[in-house]
Design goal:
Blueprint: H1 4-7, H2 19-29, E1 35-38, E2 50-54, H3 58-61, E3 71-72, E4 86-92, H4 101-111, E5 112-121, H5 123-129, H6 131-136, H7 138-145, H8 151-158, E6 162-165, E7 168-169, H9 190-194, H10 197-202, H11 204-220, H12 222-226, E8 235-236, E9 240-246
Parallel strand pairs: 1-2, 1-4, 2-3, 4-5
Antiparallel strand pairs: 5-9, 6-9, 7-8
Length: 248
């Protein structure tokens, strides 16, 4: 069973594409005439010229909106496509879930003619810059330590790539890990945590002490005093990166 068959049941409730991030992804895909979305989930950020979505979880596939690209239940390590089938392959916040990332990246390189676009994060920056995991939920950071993709290794597997920071807006509509950095009360909502894999998979028991401290700091005003500088920022860089590889 895929992990999202369990944690993805209400995924679309909190995970809606953010238009600013969507614009950055679209720019990275440039003029690709056809795209395959690998680890596609419910279809967030798919451009209109997506010809196929690859997703291992049937639960996620059933939440894809009407009119979205056709979806096949399959895994990144074994893409059901011929060589050089599409202009571009994209994989957004998914590589850390793959059983064999090297095999998955090799498959992206096999099916794409021109470009590969991967959205992931730098775990070191995330750990240091994101107050939630640094100061309240280190267990979640430890969980991600074991699965986060090292960006140098990813770049090597892609055969070279450039990296673009992906700032997280203060009102981000896509409720991934750091989306609520300026809306801390959101992390106390179990429905929000259910849509964030690092929290959902770490487990409520392990998170409970840190969440209790966060709730207390919010109730007493300590959080707002401690992180007052954040409230003046419209976006922050906590390590999310677009990794873009142009293929020969």
């Amino acid at each position: 069973m895929d992990v999202y068959d369990t944690i993805g049941i209400s995924y679309t409730r909190t995970r809606q594409p953010d238009p600013r991030i969507a614009a950055q992804i679209a720019a990275a895909l440039a003029d690709a005439a056809d795209v395959v979305n690998v680890g596609a989930g419910t279809g967030s950020y798919e451009p209109p010229h997506t010809v196929l979505a690859i997703e291992p979880s049937r639960v996620m596939i059933t939440q894809r909106p009407p009119g979205s690209a056709p979806a096949v239940q399959a895994v990144a390590e074994h893409l059901p496509l011929p060589d050089r089938a599409v202009d571009a392959a994209m994989a957004l916040l998914t590589v850390h879930h793959w059983t064999d990332p090297a095999a998955g990246i090799a498959e992206l390189r096999r099916v794409a003619r021109r470009r590969i676009v991967v959205l992931t994060w730098d775990q070191r920056i995330f750990r240091e810059n994101f107050w939630l995991v640094r100061d309240y939920l280190p267990q979640a950071a430890e969980f991600d330590d074991a699965r986060a993709m090292d960006l140098d290794r990813l770049t090597d597997l892609l055969g070279g790539a450039r990296r673009e920071p992906v700032p997280v807006p203060h009102d981000c509509t896509d409720g991934f890990g750091a989306a609520y950095w300026r809306r801390p009360h959101a992390y106390l909502d179990p429905r929000v945590r259910a849509g964030i894999s690092m929290l959902a998979q770490t487990g409520e028991h392990a998170l409970a002490p840190g969440l209790a401290r966060l709730a207390d700091d919010l109730n007493t005003g300590r959080w707002h005093t401690r992180y007052a500088d954040l409230l003046s920022h419209d976006s922050i860089d906590v390590g999310y990166r677009l990794v873009i590889a142009d293929l020969a």
